[in-house]
Amino acid sequence: MSSSSGLSPKNISKLVLIPMLAAIVAITPLAIDMYLPALTDIAETFSSEVTVVQQSLSTYLAGYALGMLIFGYLADKFGRRPLVILGLTGFSIVSLLISYSSDINSFFILRFLQALIGAAATVVVPGYIKEVYKENTAKGMSYVSLIMMIAPLIAPAVGTLILGISQWQWIFRFLSIYSALMLFMVIFQLKLPSDKDKNVRTEKSFLGAYSVVFTKEGVKLYIASGVLTSFAFFSYLTASAFVFMEVFGVNRTLFAVIFSLNVGSLMTANIINSRLVTKFGAKRMLYAATVIAIISATGLVSVNILSLSYEFTMIFLMPLMASLGVMSVSCDAIVLMKFKKETGTATAVIGTLRFGCGALAGPVLALLYTGTAVPFSGLMLVTVVGVGVLLYMKSCK
């Protein structure tokens, strides 16, 4: 293996490293999506309402956002490897404890802790990718995103399968076993130069490290662009079931196919991006994807104003979702390349802002509700146009 890869011959190859990093990041979508089929069963166990149990998702997201803020800095200060081990160990233990929850309150508390400690493992992954791929970080991010997208696709099905043969508690025991296996692989396989190189550790304080991220030249507009991109994506996740099943009247089976097609668009975009980004660079790919996104979103709004069938919505939604995938990866890569010692802190900033702003998608869509798909498509258009405006401002400087 060449030295330019960032790995020595004695260390792990990319063929093992990239799937492993993707599998580590996947603990988040697995923890979010796998228990969804069990909400009714969990509510019955705790003599509660499904709507109350659903709030545990918000609890998880809050814990994850806080965890990223804390552990992103600690990874820069003490190294990534200890944080991965801590995160996977804690996630495995807490996941097991959740399966023995005695009441709804302990369930909520443990879900918060599960997300909080799990963030320690996932927040370091972009830093590892940057270390390995260097100037081709966007390529590595595309590979990881491509593999990781399998998790939200299969998570509900795995949860349903577990419920078919056992009780909901085994969903969390499965997560415990999964993270324990990841921990085993990390201990014996994840050994990169930065794990021992103290020269790449930050000397800044907690607030100092975050100050570096927010004051770094040429970063703010790309962070803002990434946040807007995520808002568009969360808008889709929030509204997709309503739009297709209520507005267009498709059944659950067809909706599952439609959802898979859009995820497939994201995966295809990441494959294309991984091939082209080394030739054209992350910035050019970002600009090109934004133009395609604006065109697609304009078409999406048009067909819904005209009340055309769902097939026309899909014609424009699929390239829009594909563009969002490229935009997100490109923004992350550009930001990470700006930092040498504060990659964990930068990742924490990106993640926290994205999850925080993404959580606003639901309330905003509820405020704009008209019973049609126009607010959803209009919100998608506004966000990608916003990215276009930010990039134009950047190019004019």
Descriptive account of the structure:
- The chain is an all-alpha fold.
- It folds into two domains: 167 residues, MFS general substrate transporter like domains (Growth Hormone, Chain: A); 184 residues, Up-down Bundle (Growth Hormone, Chain: A).
- 79% of the residues lie in helices and 0% in strands.
- The protein is built from 18 helices and no strands.
- The longest helix has 29 residues.
- The N terminus is likely disordered.
User: So, CATH architecture of the largest domain?
Assistant: Up-down Bundle
Helical stretch tally: 18
State the helicity in percent bands: over 70%
- Oligomerization: single chain
**Main beta sheet strand tally, sense and closure:** none
Q: Kindly name the structural category.
A: mainly alpha
CATH topology of the largest domain: Growth Hormone, Chain: A
Domain count: the total is 2
What would you report as the Rg, rounded to the nearest angstrom? 21 Å
DSSP, total strands: 0
Mean pLDDT: 83
Sequence of secondary-structure elements: HHHHHHHHHHHHHHHHHH
CATH class of the largest domain: Mainly Alpha
Which regions are unreliable across 5 or more consecutive residues at pLDDT < 50?
A: 1-11
Basic shape: globular
Distance between the termini: 40 Å
Strand content bin? under 5%
| Annotated CATH homologous superfamily of the largest domain | MFS general substrate transporter like domains
GO molecular function: sodium:proton antiporter activity; xenobiotic transmembrane transporter activity
Transmembrane segments: 12-32, 52-75, 82-102, 108-129, 141-164, 170-188, 221-248, 254-273, 285-306, 312-336, 348-369, 375-393
InterPro entries: Efflux_drug-R_Bcr/CmlA, MFS, MFS_dom, MFS_trans_sf
Membrane topology: Multi-pass membrane protein
